[in-house]
């Protein structure tokens, strides 16, 4: 299904002040793929993701989502297709209650009340947050906020799920739930993270960014076994692939 395609060609972005955050990034992600975006702090991960739903406009190159190049005219449609979970949940949650936050998007689509209620409750149950429905988002823990931010995106039934550092601030149980959820999501997933162990669990493909360029793009296990590439990109092997510090095995 071509409408789940994400194609980035020679994407460049320079912030006011002159930082060249993206220096010509290209890749193509097809329907149903789960792709990890990894790289040291400042490599350009968040900048890249913010281009995928038009939060940032490219200085050069192009983004194509499904059948449409991302332009001012296609922006609204692209935002319905690409569900973006931002790095900081506080950027996403602003309503008086969790329920209203998750209902906000479906309400704006003009859906009938019954459909909105069903979508909100299904999304909250998926992230294990149904019990939080009447709570104010600003009183939640970091992990609870993250779960609600993900629910707000799931309630829009996006074809493509884009998440920026989704496992940061999560306790072990919430992280495990998140991994289960991401594995179960049938459409395209693009996940920027420092959590290489999570990538190992969820993504068959990984793109390594280094100083605004693609340093590697390939099967996750191959990338994580390439010690020279990891060293050059200031990354460390997932814990699960490292030798035991006690017995050396
Ligand atoms: N709003 C901004 N204004 C200026 N520079 C920025 C801004 N956001 C990020 N940068 C810079 O762009 C580069 C890439 O940042 P970012 O995309 O956030 O990297 P990552 O998500 O991989 O840590 C860094 O050098 C960062 O300092
Ligand atoms: Mg970032």
Protein architecture, described:
With 249 residues, this protein is of the alpha/beta class. It has one domain: Rossmann fold (3-Layer(aba) Sandwich). The chain has helices spanning 45-52, 75-81, 98-108, 113-126, 142-154, 172-184, 196-202, 220-225, 227-232, and strands at 6-14, 20-29, 34-38, 60-65, 68-69, 82-85, 160-164, 188-192, 205-210, 213-219. Strand 1 and strand 2 form a beta hairpin. Helix 3 (98-108) packs across helix 4 (113-126) and helix 3 packs parallel to helix 5 (142-154). The mean pLDDT is 94.
The strand order across the widest sheet is 6-7-8-3-9-10
- Count of beta strands: 10
- In this structure, how is the largest beta sheet organized? 6 strands, mixed
Bound molecules: adenosine-5'-diphosphate, magnesium ion
**Strand content range:** 15-25%
Class by SSE composition: alpha/beta
- Architecture (CATH level 2) name: 3-Layer(aba) Sandwich
Mean pLDDT over the residues: 94
Order of helices and strands: EEEHEEHEHHHEHEHEEHH
**What is Rg?**
18 Å
The shape, in one word, is globular
* Poorly predicted tracts of residues: none
Please tell me the total number of domains.
Answer: 1
Distance between the termini: 44 Å
The percentage helix is: 25-40%
Our count of helices gives: 9
At the fourth level of CATH, the homologous superfamily is P-loop containing nucleotide triphosphate hydrolases
């Amino acid at each position: 299904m071509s409408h789940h395609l994400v194609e980035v060609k020679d994407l460049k972005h320079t912030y006011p002040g002159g930082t060249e955050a993206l220096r010509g990034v290209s890749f193509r992600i097809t329907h149903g793929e789960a792709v990890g975006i990894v790289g040291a702090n400042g490599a350009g991960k968040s900048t890249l993701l913010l281009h995928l739903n038009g939060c940032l406009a490219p200085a050069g190159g192009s983004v194509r989502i499904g059948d449409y190049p991302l332009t001012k005219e296609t922006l609204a449609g692209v935002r319905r297709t690409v569900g973006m979970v931002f790095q900081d949940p506080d950027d996403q949650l602003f309503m008086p209650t969790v329920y209203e936050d998750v209902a906000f998007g479906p309400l704006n689509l003009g859906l009938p009340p019954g459909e909105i209620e069903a979508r909100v409750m299904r999304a909250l149950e998926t992230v294990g947050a149904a019990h939080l429905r009447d709570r104010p988002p600003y009183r939640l823990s970091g992990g609870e906020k993250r779960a609600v931010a993900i629910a707000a995106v799931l309630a829009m039934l996006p074809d493509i799920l884009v998440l920026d550092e989704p496992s940061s601030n999560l306790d072990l149980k919430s992280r495990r739930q998140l991994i289960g959820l991401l594995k179960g999501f049938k459409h395209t997933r693009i996940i920027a993270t420092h959590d290489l162990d999570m990538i190992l669990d969820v993504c068959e493909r990984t793109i390594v960014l280094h100083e605004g360029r693609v340093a590697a793009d390939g099967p996750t296990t191959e990338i994580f076994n390439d010690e020279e590439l990891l060293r050059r990109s200031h990354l460390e092997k997932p814990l699960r692939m490292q030798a035991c510090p006690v017995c050396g095995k």
